[in-house]
C-alpha cells in the first residue's frame, strides 16, 4: 500500500508493529482473527484522505509484532495493556482517540472502553456486540452446552491440536476458508474433517479479496503460525475470572455498532434480541446507532469498504 508508514514501537514489554497513514485526529484500528493491520487497508486510505491520522497495529501474536510464548500472555488485560502503551507512545498526553474494532478487535475495544474510557473519544465497533459478564456461567461451559465440542472455539482450546490440522490443510487455504466464510450458521471443525470439504476442492475468492491479498496474509502467518491468534480464544475463561471487578459495569463512551446480517455473530442465539430490544443500549448507554448491513458477512469492512468508511466518517466527524 502506497503512503503507509511502518514502524515498530516497544509497548508493555513487547515490540509492536504499527502501520500509519495521514495526519489529524487519531483513529486507532484494532483487528480480529485471522486478520492483521492489513485488514484496515481500505479504511486507512479513505479516512487519511479525509483528514485523520490512521494507526493500525498488528496485535500481540500477529504479523510483525512479537509472539509471546506463554499461552496465558493473551488475556484481555495484556492486550488492552498493549493498546494503552501504544496510545502513550503515539497520542499526546491528553489526546482522546477514536477507536474502530472488528471481531476480537471489537472485544478488545469494549474492554478498553470499560478499563480506560478516558482515552476514547468515540468508538465504532464491527461484528461483535458487547457481552456483559455473567458471574454464574463460564464462557466455555456455555459455548459447549449450546454448540457442542466441534464448535470452532471449542476446537481451538487444546494447544497444538488445531495447529496440526491447519498445517495439514495449509496456511493459505485455512486463511481463505475463514475469510470467505459467509454462512450465518456457526463454524464447526470436526476433528480430522477440516472445514467440511476436500482441501483440494477449488475455493472461489469473492470480488473483494484477491489472490495477492491472500498471499500477503499467508506470508505473515507462515512466519508466526496461528498459535498467537488462537491463544486469544484459549483465554476466554481466564478473561472471565480476571474481569470479575467489572461485572455490571457499563461502557461509558459514545458508540456506533455495525454488523452484517449474514454475520455468524449476529445470528447467534439471542444476539438479535440483545442488540435490538434494549439489552445493548442498557449496557452501552451512549450507544448512538446500530447499523445492520444487508447481504454482508463477517468481514464487512473488507467486503463493503465504501459503506463502512462512510459510516465511520459520519460518526467520528460529530466529535
Automatic annotation (TrEMBL):
Uppermost EC category: hydrolase
Enzyme Commission identifier(s): 3.3.2.10
Residue stretches making up the AB hydrolase-1 domain: 25-132
InterPro entries reported for this sequence: AB_hydrolase_1, AB_hydrolase_fold, Epox_hydrolase-like
Record's keyword terms, sorted: Hydrolase
Pfam families: Abhydrolase_1 (PF00561)
Pathway: Secondary metabolite biosynthesis; terpenoid biosynthesis
Record field: catalytic activity: (24S)-24,25-epoxycucurbitadienol + H2O = (24R)-24,25-dihydroxycucurbitadienol; an epoxide + H2O = an ethanediol
Residue ranges of coiled coil: none
Gene Ontology molecular function terms on file: epoxide hydrolase activity
Subunit structure: Homodimer.
Role played: Epoxide hydrolase involved in the biosynthesis of cucurbitacin and mogroside tetracyclic triterpene natural products (e.g. siamenoside I and mogrosides IV, V and VI). Cucurbitacins have cytotoxic properties and exhibit deterrent taste as a defense barrier against herbivores. Mogrosides are nonsugar highly oxygenated compounds used as high-intensity zero-calorie sweeteners; they also possess pharmacological properties such as regulating immunity, lowering blood sugar and lipid levels, protecting the liver, and acting as antioxidants and antitumor agents.
Membership in a protein family: Belongs to the AB hydrolase superfamily. Epoxide hydrolase family.
Protein name: soluble epoxide hydrolase
The organism of origin for this protein: Phaseolus coccineus
Lineage: Eukaryota, Viridiplantae, Streptophyta, Embryophyta, Tracheophyta
Amino acid at each position: 500500500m502506497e503512503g503507509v508508514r511502518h514502524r515498530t514501537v516497544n509497548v508493555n514489554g513487547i515490540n509492536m508493529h504499527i502501520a500509519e497513514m495521514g495526519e489529524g485526529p487519531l483513529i486507532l484500528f484494532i483487528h480480529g482473527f485471522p486478520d492483521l493491520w492489513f485488514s484496515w487497508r481500505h479504511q486507512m486510505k479513505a479516512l487519511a484522505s479525509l483528514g485523520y491520522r490512521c494507526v493500525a497495529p498488528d496485535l500481540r501474536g500477529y504479523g510483525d509484532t512479537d509472539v509471546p510464548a506463554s499461552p496465558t500472555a493473551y488475556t484481555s488485560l495484556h492486550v488492552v495493556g498493549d493498546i494503552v502503551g501504544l496510545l502513550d507512545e503515539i497520542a499526546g498526553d491528553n489526546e482522546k482517540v477514536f477507536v474502530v474494532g472488528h471481531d476480537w478487535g471489537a472485544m478488545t475495544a469494549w474492554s478498553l472502553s470499560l478499563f480506560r474510557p478516558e482515552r476514547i473519544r468515540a468508538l465504532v465497533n464491527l461484528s461483535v456486540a458487547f457481552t456483559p459478564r455473567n458471574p454464574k456461567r463460564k464462557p466455555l461451559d456455555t459455548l459447549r452446552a449450546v454448540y457442542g465440542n466441534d464448535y470452532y472455539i471449542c476446537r481451538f482450546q487444546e494447544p497444538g491440536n488445531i495447529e496440526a490440522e491447519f498445517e495439514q490443510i495449509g496456511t493459505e487455504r485455512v486463511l481463505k476458508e475463514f475469510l470467505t466464510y459467509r454462512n450465518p450458521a456457526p463454524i464447526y471443525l470436526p476433528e480430522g474433517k477440516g472445514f467440511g470439504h476436500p482441501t483440494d476442492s477449488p475455493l472461489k475468492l469473492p470480488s473483494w479479496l484477491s489472490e495477492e491479498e491472500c498471499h500477503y496474509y499467508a506470508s505473515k502467518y507462515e512466519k508466526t503460525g496461528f498459535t498467537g491468534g488462537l491463544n486469544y480464544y484459549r483465554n476466554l475463561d481466564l478473561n472471565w475470572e480476571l474481569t470479575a471487578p467489572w461485572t455490571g459495569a457499563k461502557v461509558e463512551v459514545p458508540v456506533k455498532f455495525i454488523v452484517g446480517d449474514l454475520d455468524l455473530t449476529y445470528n447467534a442465539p439471542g444476539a438479535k434480541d440483545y442488540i435490538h430490544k434494549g439489552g445493548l443500549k442498557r449496557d452501552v448507554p451512549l450507544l448512538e446507532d446500530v447499523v445492520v448491513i444487508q447481504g454482508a458477512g463477517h468481514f464487512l469492512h473488507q467486503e463493503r469498504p465504501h459503506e463502512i468508511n462512510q459510516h465511520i466518517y459520519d460518526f467520528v466527524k460529530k466529535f
